[in-house]
Write a structure and sequence with these properties.
Length: 440
């Protein structure tokens, strides 16, 4: 059977034992060979026992034949000229159906309280996505520090904070221009926003990679096992990529979520810019799903799942190039990250909705707006909560005076206290908040 750790190639498998083809065709016809909703690699399959009448290599061959039936080109080629292909999304039907069913819901769904929770989750998700993407791109900043920085509204003090800030403002921009098609000018603009003040060379920002540019290897993205195509090929490659991103190519249907995953991979593979192509790839993934109408992505942070398992993220990319340029390995990893982000968001939404509902019968709360009720809910859940006036205004897109008016009655009741921290007006729950609420 050979070394199980060595990836068996299809042409060798077919030569091994011609008489097994009849049995394999029978397996394909009866559907006996199937995956469990994942997209197993050869090492993963090697850990599972095959059917009694199959060797491990027979099983792998049957699986490879199944995958070959649905593979199609998208216009992307590896550096050696081999086409990188996508396949059937049938293995991921459940995850994709879930996003198709809920992902296109708008901001106006539900009552005012539900919308307020969604708005809060959207603000938090945007920050989490920006922080995670910047960390994957080498930003050495702790999560809580980055959250505090983005909430403060102050200027960045170092390159790591600048990278987080740039990513956040770029994702904000993408939310604004989601309906626009992707053009070369927009691509350069997004890259310039992402890399302003962080690139090693000033002219790297917004400029396509040149032959004499050296791509740094400090981040997760730039440690991928690939040789970027020659810079001279980039104009033709980008033309093909833009046609694909905008749905003008290929001539066959590609599910929008698979298209987004392929665009993500495309940018990582071609490295159109000398720095920041990783953050650009994730930003374009974000644009692609929003452009396709998946509004739920506003409250998801899939890059957080990628950051939590950076080795698996790299491995998913490298498996595409190692095994017949099958992009579904990478797509499967992004679908899994999407599903994790959905589960995390669903749990957060349920917790916040429960907390918000729990404030309904508190004395005096009936006169408060949803923002104030959410502040009370957060304070009960997070006794160490600290919110500046600017953070509250930014979270809810408020004028400063409106934000001040939200806190004023809470301070008057003694439920919140206020102080100045580095000249910023800061509010925090009273240490005995529960007792004060009961005594109102």
């Amino acid at each position: 059977m050979g070394n199980q750790s060595e990836l068996p190639r299809l042409k060798h498998l077919l030569k091994d034992n011609p008489e097994i083809i009849e049995r394999l065709l029978h397996l394909l016809e009866t559907g006996t060979v199937r995956s469990d909703g994942s997209y197993p690699t050869w090492p993963q399959l090697s850990l599972q026992p095959p059917a009694a009448y199959l060797t491990l290599r027979d099983w792998w061959l049957a699986l490879k034949l199944q995958r070959l039936l649905g593979r199609q080109e998208i216009g992307l080629k590896a550096s050696g000229g081999q086409p990188i292909t996508v396949g059937s999304v049938e293995s991921f039907a459940e995850a994709i159906h879930g996003m198709d069913r809920t992902g296109r819901s708008g901001n106006d769904d539900g009552d005012a309280g539900s919308r307020r929770v969604r708005e809060y989750l959207a603000v938090e998700a945007l920050r989490e996505e920006a922080i995670a993407s910047a960390q994957l791109d080498g930003a050495g900043i702790a999560l809580e520090v980055a959250r505090g920085f983005l909430g403060s509204g102050r200027k960045a003090r170092d390159p790591d904070e600048q990278k987080v800030f740039n990513t956040h403002r770029t994702l904000e921009r993408i939310r604004e221009i989601r309906a626009q098609p992707l053009t070369l000018a927009l691509l350069a603009d997004l890259h310039q926003r992402l890399t302003a003040g962080t690139v090693v060379k000033g002219d790297f920002s917004g400029r396509l990679r040149r032959e004499d540019d050296v791509v740094s290897a400090e981040s997760v993205d730039e440690k991928l096992e690939r040789e970027p195509p020659p810079a001279a090929e980039l104009p033709v490659r980008l033309k093909a990529m833009l046609a694909f991103a905008n749905g003008r190519a290929p001539g066959h249907f590609v599910h929008p979520l698979l298209r987004a995953a392929a665009l993500h991979f495309w940018v990582l593979h071609d490295q159109p810019f000398a720095e920041g192509s990783g953050r650009l790839a994730r930003a374009l993934y974000y644009w692609c799903v929003l452009h396709a109408g998946y509004a739920e992505f506003e409250i998801l942070a899939p890059s957080a799942a990628l950051r939590d398992a950076p080795a698996a993220y790299r491995r998913a990319f490298n498996e595409v190039l190692a095994d017949d340029h099958d992009l579904m390995y990478f797509a499967a990893h992004l679908f899994e990250a999407m599903a994790k982000a959905q589960r995390r968001c669903k749990g957060e939404a349920a917790c916040w909705w429960e907390e918000l509902q729990g404030t309904e019968n508190l004395p005096g709360v009936a006169e408060f707006n949803d923002r104030q009720r959410l502040l009370i809910a957060r304070a009960r859940r997070e006794p160490s909560l600290r919110r500046t006036l600017q953070e509250h205004a930014r979270d809810h897109n408020l004028a400063r005076q409106t934000a001040r008016n939200d806190f004023a009655p809470l301070v008057k009741l003694g439920w919140f206290e206020e102080t100045k921290v580095s000249r910023a007006l800061t509010f925090f729950p009273a240490p005995d908040l529960a007792e004060r609420i009961k005594g109102t």
